Amino acid sequence: MIYHLLVPFAAQLSVLNVFRYITFRSIYAFSTALIIAIVFGPRVIAWLTKLKCGQYIHEDVKAHQCKAGTPTMGGILMAVSIIPAVLLWADLTNQYVWMTMLVFLGFGAIGFADDYIKVVKKQNKGLSARGKIIGQLFIATAAVGILMLDPDFTTKLAVPFFKNIQPDLGLFYLPFAVIVIVGASNGVNLTDGLDGLAIGPTVVAAGMFALFVYVAGHAQIARYLQVVPVSGVGEVTVFCAALVGAGLGFLWFNAYPAQVFMGDVGSLSLGGALGFVAVVCKQELILLIVGGVFVLETLSVILQVGYYKFSGGKRIFKMAPLHHHFELKGIPESKIIIRFWILSILLAFVALSTLKLR
Ligand code: 57M
Q1: Does a structural domain hold residue 263?
Q2: How many CB atoms lie under 10 A from the CB of residue 353?
Q3: What residues of the chain score a pLDDT lower than 70?
Q4: Ligand 1 pocket: which residues have CB below 6 Å?
């Protein structure tokens, strides 16, 4: 909104030209979302507590019993911080910005329905797993389908570290990109089992993708770094910056010991948005590195369930997802969380190095 209000007057007042810059507006989108989240956090937490959105706690992990009653659905706080920040600071004629917001809200709506049934209606199962996955597949397919209608959108796949290998997936790009988006959404959800464990790596990944979308949207820098250019995608930097701000604002309250959990409304929407951003800036495989913590957590579940079935009841980990394994080994929660954050930062820098190592 600010962009549309002020830039038309830039000819008369040259200082207003600063609002043309994506970098400048991204800094303010970050700050706006952070401030909204911190200012409204206590109110949203009080409201969630009043709604009796207290989290049900499984009995298997003893250390979690003290978390009973912690309100969940804190993802709502992130949504009400991100959306106004993007509406204020982004160029709202940009299709990629709208699509990213819609994917974020669409996945959030599925998570909201699940949380609402579980914690407000007190029906322990929530949405059926099948219902959730159909909703996710529908939104992701629609979003990627719309992208692919644009004749300029390439279905070639950039392979990290190998600039000359770019297989063209053609129509197979659709299921591939859908798996990326739905996989990211569920990966963040599986990771969301300790205070701050999901939001830390999400903030790191969104920060890294802010850079990748900016580079992909900047013709000269993209050419220089030999990154697939995507005209107009740079504006999504504003969304990523708002996500980083809202994520840090949420972490303010979700840091150990958490006053609020994000719920599926948070985990599904954040993961879905990260997946879509990776698709839209043509860095789908980089997400595997940037979001390596989510990949590890998901792999631990796949391995655990697979091995359990194959071996007739044996386990690889004490419990999956991986963070439960470390908890049951007796490592304190805050140590596990911070070590996972450190890993996510390391992986983000490995991903960044792919811009030069090719
Ligand atoms: C959701 N939800 C947390 C909170 C959060 C297939 C199987 C591996 C699935 C997996 C699963 O259900 N994962 C998805 C994980 C829950 O958090 C709520 O859920 C939202 C995210 N969707 O925002 O609202 C609990 O996590 C803890 N928590 C925190 N701090 C936070 O900031 O401490 C969450 C956020 C909260 C709180 O205790 O209640 C969850 O873990 O349930 N299932 C599992 O993870 C289960 N693993 C399992 O059964 N492993 C088996 C097999 C099937 C792989 C095995 O290894 O043998 C474990 N979940 C729990 N206890 N809680 C089982 C033990």
Answers
A1: yes
A2: 13
A3: 358
A4: 55, 57-58, 60-61, 64, 67, 72, 189-190, 192-195, 254, 258, 261-264, 267, 301, 304-305, 315, 319-321, 324
